[in-house]
Amino acid sequence: MSSKLVQGYEVVIGFETHTQLSTQSKIFSRASVAFGAEPNTQACAVDMALPGTLPVMNKAAVERAIQFGLAVNAHVAERSIFARKNYFYPDLPKGYQISQFEIPVVQGGEVSFYLVEGKETVHKTVRLVRAHLEEDAGKSIHEDTELGGGGQSGIDLNRAGTPLLEIVTEPDMRSSDEAVAYAKELHKIVTWIGICDGNMQEGSFRCDANVSVRKPGAPLGTRREIKNLNSFKFMQQAIDFEVRWQIEELEDGRTIQQATVLFDPDTGETRAMRTKEDSADYRYFPDPDLPPLVIDRGWVARVKGSMTELPRVMAQRFVADYALPEYDATTLTQSKAMAAYFEATAKAYNQPKLASNWIMGEVSRRLNASDIGIDQAPVSADRLAALISRIHDGTISNNAAKEVFEALWTTPGDWVAETGPLSVVDSIIEAKGLKQMNDTGALEAIIDEVLAAHPKNVEEFKAGNAKALNGLVGPIMKASKGKANPAQVNALLMKKLG
Amino acid sequence: MTRYKNVRFKSQLGLTVAPQLKPAFFTAHKMSLQSQDMVRMASLAKLEINPQELELMRTSINDFFKMVQAIGSVDTTGVEPLAHPVAIIQDVTLRLRDDVVSETNRREANQQSAPAIDRGLFLVPKVVE
Amino acid sequence: MSSLVTALSKPLHDLTVAELAAGLKAKTFSATEVAQYFVTRAQNDMGTSDPVQGADNTWGTGSFLALNPEATLAQAQAADARLAAGTGGALEGVPLGHKDIFVTQSFPTTAGSKMLEGYRSPFDATVVRQLAEAGMVTVGKLNCDEFAMGSANENSAFGPVRNPWDMTRVPGGSSGGSAAAIAARLVPAATGTDTGGSIRQPASFCGITGIKPTYGRASRYGMISYASSLDQAGPMARTAEDCALLLRALCGPDPDRDSTSLDVPSEDFSRSLNDSLEGLRIGIPKEFFGEGLASDVRTAVDAALAELTKLGAKLLPISLPLTELSIPVYYIIAPAEASSNLSRFDGVKFGHRANNFTDLESMYKKSRAEGFGQEVKRRIMTGTYVLSHGYYDAYYLQAQKIRRMIAQDFQNAFKVCDVIAGPVAPKVAWRLGENANDPVADYLADIFTLPASLAGLPGMSVPAGFGSGQGKPLPVGLQLIGNYFKEAQLLNVAHRLQQATDFHLFKPEGV
């Protein structure tokens, strides 16, 4: 376990993530949660806090909290209490937010992931303190200067009442890399189990990072909270800036004041928000409009039974059943779609490690470059499996396979699949003349010619310089127009040169 | 099972309950609000109250808290708070409704008493974050 | 209209709800006639129109805050159509007033506050809707203490309500408008709300009958929240029989809108009205009969209890030791919940917004300071304090624990008695302005009604006689407290008392 010190300081990070739950209606009212509607057309009387309105709990929000609790190995509380968090803000119609305080619905839990640190791949676990249900606030529109004749902010309460699950970690993270890796893993979990659509641009997954620094062994430093980070890139930048800023402050002899901070993507800097006096006294008390939420163990069992295989369980299965390294298994289970793609490929042709290499390599590279998901990949799992089969049986070399793959990816429609993916692959191989030369006789002839033409290399090799072989392989491959099977070339050379 | 010590509370009505006042098992905060408490409460509650009014209110609220002190002498060890009153005879739990959208767009009706609207948005003085 | 009056043995305004309902079904008069009659009486009270030729005087009780004759008559006409078709509900065409704490689409709702002056709700309270479904016709909205906070209806932003028995005195609160309107025969029935006694006490002061059902029996949806865990809607009328009819219509689960409403169906609360009281055990709490109880009140209450023993009931002494503590416990819990419930009044989405402010902060502070009256501000301040960091455990939490002990005391008492009886208030209605500089004095006068509120038990006030108010007779109510869901039993006791006495038939001089 490495702890990356920055200028001699240890970085301590904890996250609070607000995930919008993928229900149809709001947590306490029956208005829709669909994104993008005209202002205040999806805010009913309850959402607007009109006099006399009262909250009624959405079962699907509770169900999703249970699913999350199971996914992170947490305790799902038999009884939990809703509490009012009292403060004034225009996007908070009741003047309080219904949340959970002393007794949340999900308690404990953990999130594990792999982190590449330098040359090592390290396994990390971040502990969760809790996850609780609460309602989202509305939106304030500040930028429109025309609004109301100027000098006004506009309030849209469509989002008010959207169900949120707030997920809180212990301050277990020690670098921005670790923090982002945690956030990505959490994102994967909530989208995998289907409780959140994960759309960060639309605000479905928002992270607040609590950041502090200290000298190793010293007590925890004062933390500042960076709010509303809704992209992984910004998370990284914001935390890095904040860490450097805090260290600079301390080095200059100043102290860190607890503050809520916003990240400005244009400047790359964090900046304290206008301090809200008394903002810490939320006067939490159990909401008298909502009796205790009871979740019996039978309900938890039913939810557990109906959940899809969780990513880490699936990853373990990949390790066991496909003999894949843990790193591969974790990478392949980054999404349900990718895991399914892998399994389909491996089932079509039983070379799981090759399949893994190709998916983590070529396929992922092209997906990232085109910014598409694996479900939009032009190369189907069947076609990839066919390609792998032709590598494995020696028909083509790995390099040649890349050419075939390029054709499959960029011009998939050109290759008619009447008789199946294998014939598609074969027809590309044929068309491009990529078939590896497996005829040993012809190969030997070429090798003999090259050996004759390069006496110096032969001499040096026999003298003990293994590298001299390289000077021979090149011309052999060239003479065979790239169709020689490299493994065979090496074997024959060895035989001939002893 | 409730356990509590009888409390003597001599009210203005002259009603007395029990003769013995046991030493307070639980001392309630000696409540006497200072001016700065009043200022802070008014700020939390978003009420603009001028200093003279605030001072008058402080006196009457302190009178109130003198009356309220008595709760501190009740031993409530092991007693759970009672939120929904009927919970004392039967478990009252949160009812859950099905996840169905049934509210339609009633923006105009809902906003009919709004102080300031523009293009469907509620207007407030610009907020600087 | 006067021909209608002479055709009956008594004026229309002296008919009970039951009598009106029967008369409407029998087509002795129409809903439209009845509605117009009471609208006119209300208008006279408000001083807004010509007095009706003949009998009616002009009262200025201040009971009504809003009328909408057009809407009322439309409701009445619809009722007439249903009556003609034979599809009328149990209370078809019977008029009532709604305490202005219930939101209504056809009338503005103010909750007695400048904060909501002119507010129009886009929906009706569930209780309003249910009574309308039973056929009742809304005459108007009734004055109340601001946001239901008060015991004298002196805290309304729209003027105090005057007790028709003595117009220099308070009618009680917070449902003062409801009680006074009934006493002055401006409506035969009204809705009220009871958080700490706000149905029972004004009923007692005005010589009418009122009942607060078990907490959770009637929906709170559309009832502007004061103290969520205590507020409960209930009917007010002149007789227990009338209350039973209204109670049936306004009770019932509201699972889609109110999470605190219980899955307990409404009942035919009239079914046991005439049951014998033989062997009924009535518990008399000694704490309700101490030195602080005025002697004239005591006399009237004792006499009523004597009547009940004549009917076969047995009185037995019980103790509710935490009675006095119910005052601080209530006045911690209720303002705490209220301080949070009233945060939505911020001048953003509805309600009063100040005209002059510099920024958001000052908009909040000025709007709320201008919109709320003194008592409301005071309770918001104390409520904020008892919830604030460092004080929550000592005050709010401690109060909620004592609350459980109070409720337990009642459960212990109900092991040995069926019903608990006693006074509603320590003295009769006081003069307007008497407690102006002493809010705590008002609080102390709630001592007998608060315990049942904290425990969520059903409670009634029944006219039991009169006390002295320097010349004018001032009503005294008998309080009956029942165990959870025992409203029918309370109504039974009240009804039998009303058969044996005639206090509920008395009316103020000149009405």
Descriptive notes:
The complex is a heterotrimer of chains A (498), B (129) and C (511). By secondary structure, chain A is of the alpha+beta class. Chain A has three domains: 10-300, no CATH class; 309-432, no CATH class; 440-497, Orthogonal Bundle (Arc Repressor Mutant, subunit A), CATH 1.10.10.410. Helices cover 39% and strands 19% of the residues of chain A. In chain A, the strands form four sheets. In chain A, strands 1, 3, 7, 8, 9, 12, 13, 14, 15 and 16 form a ten-stranded mixed β-sheet that branches. In chain A, strand 15 (259-264) and strand 16 (269-272) form a beta hairpin. The longest helix of chain A has 20 residues, at 232-251. In chain A, 44% of the residues are buried. Chain B is of the alpha+beta class and 129 residues long. Helices cover 25% and strands 7% of the residues of chain B. Chain B has helices at residues 35-44, 51-68, 107-110; strands spanning 96-97, 117-118, 121-125. Chain B has a two-stranded antiparallel ribbon with strand order 2-3. In chain B, a hairpin with a 2-residue loop joins strand 2 and strand 3. The longest helix of chain B is centred in the middle third of the chain and has 18 residues, at 51-68. Chain C has 511 residues and is α/β, with parallel strands linked by helices. Chain C is globular and about 65 Å long. Chain C starts with a helix and ends in an 11-residue tail after the last helix. Chains B and C meet through helix 1, helix 2 and strand 3 of B and helix 10, helix 11, helix 12, helix 13 and helix 14 of C. Strand 11 (152-156) of chain A pairs antiparallel with strand 3 of chain B.
